[in-house]
Amino acid sequence: MDRQEKIRILQDVIQIQSPNGNEEIVALYYKNLLEAYGIDARIIPYSDGRANLVAEIHGQDQGKILAVSGHMDVVDAGNADLWDFPPYAAEIHDGLIYGRGTTDMKAGLTALIIAMIELKASDEPFKGTVRLLATVGEEVGMMRAEQLTQMGFTQDITGMLIAEPTKPFYHTKHKGSIQYQVIAHGRAAHSSTPDKGINAILLINEFINKTNAKMAAATKLAYNDTLGATLNVFTMIAGGNQINSVPEATILSGNARTVPEVGNDVVIGIFNEAIDSINAKGQGSLALNILQNNQFADGANDSDLVASILAVDPDAENRGLSAATDGAIFTDVDNDFDFVIYGPGDMADAHTINEAIGVDEYLEFIARYGAIYRSYLNE
């Protein structure tokens, strides 16, 4: 496969619009690509228009099983008029491919797949198995990684490489993630007689103040040397339906990023303590709705997979990752395997306007992944 073909494949995938949906078309594209090179691939449906993809290549002898993974969904492109180039055109300018999902993470996933194809096509002897796990819905909920985990695809592996953007680092650990809503129920009234109502926005405001104080106290007591501190960010609020009425309902959304020392149970406990103290007053009520509750991922710093990565990228540094990945789900099994996140692109460019990936960096990672496969499986 020549340089231009590799670039064209990535452009094709970027041009498939898959913002938190429509991933089945991406999966079918990859399936056809793999099968054109003699690699069987299996579509695993999740819901209408959404499907995971699993494929394997096998060496001449049994050995390690290396799972390689990336997600096929992207976040919404937002206002396309704010982009310098159309977000799904995959145009190349000054050595960069522009488009939603280039960095997060179609470049990394495509590089993993092309490296599999090239290893298969080379007829070079190797041991063991490379298993592709391409997922849907990582950006919202990670439920599709859970589907593959429940089907046993990580129960027998010896290592997992996730191609999220990490430049210039690699990550063996990342924070947990809690996505949640707090729903406030008050009582509507005319704004000229607010004492007749219960203001749901003020209930949420009280929750925010109580939670911030409790979170600050908890995080002062514990800090993870690799991952840092547990964080909680309130990200969306919606309340009221008319400017001259006391709002009877408000929904607050948030995302917490957790470390082992102040973990998911501790943070959810803080939320519930604040809610209980407010509800005890009998003036309106709050309810907690947990949308996603993923634990942190914790891989070994000195694994064989780390050694294989350092062999091709000796200057890479191991850093903790604040963002969550499908690894939080995949590693939640009774199987202790090597785990590393390593891929092209900078996480700071993910979800941004004018998201882009360097063409040469993408191509370099195809070669790096091929070398990692050979090193890890044959050592």
TrEMBL record:
GO molecular function: metal ion binding; succinyl-diaminopimelate desuccinylase activity
Reaction catalyzed: N-succinyl-(2S,6S)-2,6-diaminopimelate + H2O = (2S,6S)-2,6-diaminopimelate + succinate
Top-level taxon of origin: Bacteria
Record-annotated Peptidase M20 dimerisation domain positions: 173-281
Protein keywords: Amino-acid biosynthesis, Cobalt, Diaminopimelate biosynthesis, Hydrolase, Lysine biosynthesis, Metal-binding, Zinc
Chain ranges passing through the membrane: none
Cofactor: Co(2+); Zn(2+)
Gene Ontology biological-process annotations: diaminopimelate biosynthetic process; lysine biosynthetic process via diaminopimelate
UniProt enzyme class: hydrolase
Pfam families (UniProt xref): M20_dimer, Peptidase_M20
Enzyme Commission no: 3.5.1.18
SUPFAM superfamilies noted in UniProt: Bacterial exopeptidase dimerisation domain, Zn-dependent exopeptidases
Pathway the protein contributes to: Amino-acid biosynthesis; L-lysine biosynthesis via DAP pathway; LL-2,6-diaminopimelate from (S)-tetrahydrodipicolinate (succinylase route): step 3/3
NCBIfam families: DapE-ArgE, PRK08588.1
Family per similarity comment: Belongs to the peptidase M20A family.
PANTHER family assigned: ACETYLORNITHINE DEACETYLASE (PTHR43808), PEPTIDASE M20 DIMERISATION DOMAIN-CONTAINING PROTEIN (PTHR43808:SF8)
UniProt protein name: Probable succinyl-diaminopimelate desuccinylase
Source organism of the structure: Aerococcus agrisoli
